[in-house]
Amino acid sequence: MSIDRIAKLLQMAEGAKTAEEAAAFFGKAQALATAHEISLAQARQRQPKGQREQPVQQLLTVGRPRQQANRHYLRLLVALAKSNGCEIGLYNSNTAAVLFGLPSDIATVERMFGAIAPQMVRLGEQYLAAARWRGELVVDLRTGATRAVTRQGARASFYLGFTDTLSGRIRQAANEARQAAEQAARQRTDHFHDDAASDDAPATEPTGVEIALRAKELEVRAYAKQHLGGGSWRGGRSPTEVAVGSYRAGDRAATTVRIGGQAAIGDDRLALRA
After folding, report:
1. Is 243 in contact with 149 (CB distance < 8 Å)?
2. How confident is the model over 36-68, as pLDDT tens digits?
3. 130 falls within a domain
4. E strands, 102-184, in order
5. Residue 244 lies in a domain
6. Count of domains for the chain
7. Which site among 102, 194, 214, 271 is 20 to 30 Å from 252 CA-CA?
């Protein structure tokens, strides 16, 4: 399993004939990424510590200062990082993030973010151009007051709906892949024990998959804690106002998004336009 196979799945999603096929290819890409992460984590457990792939850090710039869309890019990046075995540090300016993890895991996050984020922008601009947001009201979630939505507000609500839904898809695909790997590991273990021995084994005994992933998680987390400087991110706060129609449009777009086919991460890759 490799990043190249993940890239091929993303490209297949771009050429899918239906939105359902595209969504299925995306789920397979995340599942493959998780399986790749698991296989590497298990291989590392069998290697002497000095020969293992070691955690590294990598800076990713997502936009220019004061772009409101930056916080939505970062929400998406956080979901990808957490689902693919990486820790993440976010700049106060919301313009960049530092990924901490194994090089192969960071490469997966980069590839998937580079495929998804530009499409969020493209779909958002298509929604705005259709002008269905005109006449919509923005609801202040604290007071219940309403006002007419602006183009900027409609875009922000679209991005919020998109990132909420797609982040959920990412986490679900990763969790399902991990659960399937753990179940397969338990079945292999049971195959080598008779019924009596299996009955005596604790039901909650961790599998090799869980042990390997936990060991890697602790190592990456310790590395991130050692290197992570000051700075916090406020983009994760709950929104104070939302245009419901635009939010739902973003949600619908995220359930049918075609992932893949964008330029590779780099150069123009993460400097996205609001």
Report:
1. yes
2. 666 666 665 566 666 567 889 999 988 888 888
3. no
4. 137-140, 146-148
5. no
6. 1
7. 271
